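Hi D.,

Good news: the full-assembly prediction came through. Inputs first.
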Amino acid sequence: MPPSATADETPLRRKLMDAALELFDERTWDGTNVPEIAARAGVAVGTIYRYFPNKQALGEAVFTEAKAAFADAVVTDAVRAADPVTAIGLVWHHQVAFALAYPQAFSFLEHQVHGSYLRPQAYEVVHRLDAELVEILRAAQAAGAVRAGDPQVLLSMAFGAFVGVTKHSRASGVPLGEYDLEGVREAVMSLIGLTGPGSPDAA
Amino acid sequence: MPPSATADETPLRRKLMDAALELFDERTWDGTNVPEIAARAGVAVGTIYRYFPNKQALGEAVFTEAKAAFADAVVTDAVRAADPVTAIGLVWHHQVAFALAYPQAFSFLEHQVHGSYLRPQAYEVVHRLDAELVEILRAAQAAGAVRAGDPQVLLSMAFGAFVGVTKHSRASGVPLGEYDLEGVREAVMSLIGLTGPGSPDAA
Amino acid sequence: MPPSATADETPLRRKLMDAALELFDERTWDGTNVPEIAARAGVAVGTIYRYFPNKQALGEAVFTEAKAAFADAVVTDAVRAADPVTAIGLVWHHQVAFALAYPQAFSFLEHQVHGSYLRPQAYEVVHRLDAELVEILRAAQAAGAVRAGDPQVLLSMAFGAFVGVTKHSRASGVPLGEYDLEGVREAVMSLIGLTGPGSPDAA
Amino acid sequence: MPPSATADETPLRRKLMDAALELFDERTWDGTNVPEIAARAGVAVGTIYRYFPNKQALGEAVFTEAKAAFADAVVTDAVRAADPVTAIGLVWHHQVAFALAYPQAFSFLEHQVHGSYLRPQAYEVVHRLDAELVEILRAAQAAGAVRAGDPQVLLSMAFGAFVGVTKHSRASGVPLGEYDLEGVREAVMSLIGLTGPGSPDAA
DNA sequence: TATGAATGAGAGTTCATTCAT
DNA sequence: AATGAATGAACTCTCATTCAT
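Then the structure:
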């Protein structure tokens, strides 16, 4: 999986998290059973319990790691240092790059409901990322570069639009990379009403 | 639930479908157990099996009914009769009305992954609705009223943007009705690049 | 079913006993469920409980009636009045006639184990019939007309031989009537070592 | 149980098969529930499902093993090599020895109806044994050593006579060994009309 | 009197978790 | 440290029985 792994990394723990992520993405947490995870990771069932106290903890670890990796990938120091408009372009770029590099992590995180196994504290990463992105949008609004309105809603729409495309990619079986992602970017920039320099790759 | 219910309606069957929808929305199909459904419906466990051969069939019935109700609500005869641009406005309006009237059905349908209990044929409604909406977008593109690009992707983005808002509503606990839905509509119309008469309520 | 029905006969009770006998013969008592019996009898489930307090009582009634009918058919007054050798011939004849007339009752009674639903008192008919037949054999032995040895064992063998034929008939699907029953009789008479006038139909 | 056990033997699997045979004999397959089997075998319920996919498969395994053990015990190479008359004597001897050594297996196999849980293929052993024994009787008839008539019927009678004795033994609670089995043998030999050297133990 | 929808205890089965090896 | 057979609570489903109609 992506970097930002927790400290106590181990080859087996890594294999377990990867196998679990794959299966949770395919079948959801509730729909996956522990022996399957062990089988996919190529270890015995008992081994799982040397690394995680129970299935719920494994679920939380997988979710938290994936979400943290996404957050770290999307909001980099460069994003924090940039002006709002540039930041938005960077964020978009990073988000797409993450979804391309880790499609399973992305769809596990964004196409499912996670209430059954996450304790409230697991949402901290989510909220922190949310807050940072909302702040960027707010700043962009203040600069008159982005449409008015609740920036949280703006964010939900923009991100939702992209998630919509990844859902379609997953349902159709066509890899995200084969879509016209530049077209998607332009449409979403229209959605948020962004004017000015859009693509970070632009000259 | 919404109209378009299957022929063999019965008060108890109705109560079971409603209770099941609520729980599937809260906890997913895999995360809900049969006694809970019975309890919520106020009947004994065995009663469920007088109306559905098994839990999977109940899941399919709930999903299919909700999706069909959504499809019927969104693509009405008026939509089919209208010109593309008007049709888009109507569709948007209907979709929002459905999400406001049946928030649980909407989030059950759109915030989850349903692979574990639906047989392929259950997706027929999904595909039919999809095809109709794509056709409307295609016609609008032909008329030069909507941004170019794969209409399927355009649809995924536009619908995804709205789903993003409903997700946020659900996560925050703020009812969808308290959001600035007119603002959302305008943003999404910009997303698809729609020009011309937008809101069906507009003078 | 055969005569000797219990006093409180009723058309519905009769249909229920007949349907139950058929099903118990096909699937055993444990393997038959109450709704099936109702369906076969053409009545509603609840009706069964107006005639029998529970499934076990129905089982006992069916078993007891069938066994009593068999006993009454086999040991008639004529048998009781006859000399041992003639009695044996008559008993054989009656037994075969019963198995031909009521194959389901016969195989239900003789091809199965009934321990799970009969209270000890239900075996009284069995023991009474047994005792009468054993007495006939003992008298025949005393007259030197039948092989020596425990008459109970002799009876078990002779009856078992016939049951063996009915089992084969049932397994092969060939009705008992198509077998060479006269040959069977002669063989069994040899088994018990009976000399003298054998067949009651003989000139 | 008897030898001829299937390859994948295991102490627990053995205990389960033994416990199941006992209970199926006492209460029939339909009348026995899974927790009882587990309790009798001294294991937890779940353990059963590590060795058998379901209750039906356990029933089939028990039936098939017992029947195969019986067939192997009865028709040995010595039987196949012997002349028909000697073979009949040996078969009789083996059958009695099996019933003495494994009374539960014998009565489970022969006092019950097994239709509810056996797939047709489970009857293959039954038919193979039957065919071999019928062939022996046919050869004996050809040699003029045994009564004329359908050899299948002759077999059913002879075996049925012995089964009749085991049924009585079971019902009365008197172990089979306390019966005059030599007398039983002689009677059955008369039944099939066997002349010539009877008992294999005879000088 | 007869019905059959409703019941819930108990059946068969699954699976997260433990622990002797 | 890793294993996987064993466990038993909890699941899905069945069916004997009840009772309002």
